[in-house]
């Protein structure tokens, strides 16, 4: 049987009279990379904080690494690396000094060896004497990840880890996550970037605190069943304006020189697209398969919370 590193059910949390996470289930096998998507304020950070033992759910149950989320949170915290949205580093310490400091805080043994390993794993060895405050965003991110990994956690929880980092640095960061995954580290990562979402083995999508979708990335297009049409030709803007808000059209997105119009009601969508063709005969229309790109944009637009 697959070992579930994260296995939580019905997690619920309210702030005041607002339910922010509502009966949330999550099962993540060892070594998996699980992406956590959802519009702003949908409850991702709150869920991550409950999973790592920082926040007590008001109801629900489950385990992380076999430890009970309600009664054994100190044991979970010790074994989890958590990178928050606003991680902090000591800007006037060097990369190495930051890692040494953190390993002392954790009371770790073999500190020099651990720091050497973290530096090497993240390609930071040559820069170890540089001041953290002088690093670019991408290098700071790597240092933050090295700091999360210094106690060799079995679970990594990353809350929008590469916000504001350029695509090359994001790719390097993800290479590191893949290497950790190959070594058996389990990762849950919240993200707003498509290039990160496609790196994940599976995606859980949350809106208004409820999980609406949970599936391997490759199965998501089929699961959502989004109908899609491609519209091309010049000028495109009048067609685009007609499509926006038209019946059956849940998404109008530019893909280079064409538009993709997608929606969950294929009949209404087709009628709207054909109306555009009738009014704008110079455009070409063609029915296409929705790919993960369209689905991702559709999900992150956050306007369609009804699919099963
Ligand atoms: N400590 C708190 N006290 C009161 N409200 C809170 C607290 N923490 C979070 N919230 C509210 O709970 C809701 C969910 O927040 P959460 O940070 O979990 O969402 P998120 O999906 O991570 O959003 P983002 O993508 O913007 O980080 C938000 O409306 C937020 O304002």
TrEMBL record:
InterPro entries: AAA+_ATPase, ABC_transporter-like_ATP-bd, ABC_transporter-like_CS, P-loop_NTPase
Alphabetized UniProt keyword annotations: ATP-binding, Nucleotide-binding
Pfam families the UniProt entry points to: ABC_tran (PF00005)
MF GO annotations: ATP binding; ATP hydrolysis activity
Top-rank lineage group of the source organism: Bacteria
Keyword Ubl conjugation included in the entry's annotation: no
Domain ABC transporter, first and last residues per copy: 6-233
Matches recorded under PANTHER family: ABC TRANSPORTER G FAMILY MEMBER 20 ISOFORM X1, ATP-BINDING CASSETTE, SUB-FAMILY H, MEMBER 1
Name this polypeptide is given: Putative ABC transporter ATP-binding protein YbhF
Name of the coding gene: ybhF
